[in-house]
Design brief:
By secondary structure, the chain is of the alpha+beta class. It has two helices and five strands, in the order ββαβαββ. A five-stranded mixed β-sheet has the order 2-1-5-3-4, with helices on one face. The longest helix has 9 residues. The radius of gyration is 13 Å and the shape is globular. The termini are far apart.
Length: 109
């Protein structure tokens, strides 16, 4: 399988069901940017270097995800609108195990 289905709720509340490639070494932040689901310049500001929290999402499904790194924990500790299910999209690689993943893009800080 090279494509998975991901459901993303944007900041306006609209739901987008997206076919996402798993064979292009992309992460969730890059997927949101490529589908232009947030205004340009409001998501992935640091380019996925874990130096901002602009790509924060809420994980709405129960998929197993990679463990948070210390850098991700540090960024989330300084971010606004953080919840128990907050993650940085740049730290979630698109893999087959994420088929049917559901996320909500966190409000812009």
């Amino acid at each position: 399988m090279s494509d998975i289905q991901i459901t993303i709720r944007d900041r306006e509340g609209a739901t987008h069901r997206i076919q996402a490639p798993t064979d292009m070494n992309m992460n969730l932040m890059e997927l949101v940017r490529s589908w232009e689901l947030a205004p340009e310049g409001t998501i992935g500001v640091c380019g996925g270097m874990v130096m901002c929290a602009s790509c924060q999402v809420y994980i709405d499904s129960t998929h197993p995800l990679p463990k948070k790194t210390d850098e991700e924990e540090a960024m989330l500790s300084e971010a606004f609108y953080v919840k128990e299910n907050s993650r940085l999209g740049c730290q979630i690689p698109l893999e087959n195990t994420l088929d049917e993943l559901e996320v909500t893009i966190a409000p812009e800080s």
